[in-house]
Specification:
Elements: E1 6-17, E2 20-30, E3 35-41, E4 44-50, H1 53-65, E5 70-71, E6 80-81, H2 84-90, E7 94-97, E8 105-108, H3 124-138
Antiparallel strand pairs: 1-2, 1-5, 2-3, 3-4, 6-7, 7-8
């Protein structure tokens, strides 16, 4: 990572578990080559650097799964997943929000999820499977 990475996103977020909600901080930085996502919660830091923001967020989410937490950001929702073009050309910050009908909308993966939508937050494998099913329905 370069000495002066650009901070793209720095915001307080909620982290949701079966036991309730805790507050954390999400930071996303771009070094010119690498994309880093960091979530700080209490005295723990979860961080990943990857070739795009979505993959870095996925890696952090996998670490958070170990302690039963889901970040309340759009990129952790059941029906959100980036296109290959978004990953390769846009750094993975934008993704598709897959509706049950019509065409998907484009969203920012770091946008917050209101507490009324916490039921849409899922672990990584559940998200992959849900989007796979939604995509296959669209091609029928």
């Amino acid at each position: 990572m370069s000495d002066n990475p650009e901070t793209i996103h720095d915001v307080e977020i909620s982290l949701v578990s079966g036991d309730g909600v805790v507050t954390g901080r999400l930071m996303a930085q771009f070094s010119g080559v690498d994309y880093t996502v960091r979530i700080v919660c209490a005295d723990m830091t979860y961080e990943s650097t990857a070739w795009n923001f979505f993959q870095a967020l996925v890696n952090v989410r996998l670490s958070l799964e170990g302690v039963g937490l889901k970040p309340a950001v759009v990129g952790a929702c059941r029906n959100v997943y980036p296109s290959r073009m978004s990953l390769e050309m846009g750094g993975g910050r934008r993704a598709y929000l897959w509706p049950l009908a019509e065409r998907p909308a484009t969203v920012d993966i770091f946008d917050g999820v209101p507490d009324s939508e916490y039921g849409n937050l899922v672990f990584v494998d559940d998200q992959k499977e849900a989007v796979r099913r939604l995509r296959s329905k669209g091609s029928e």
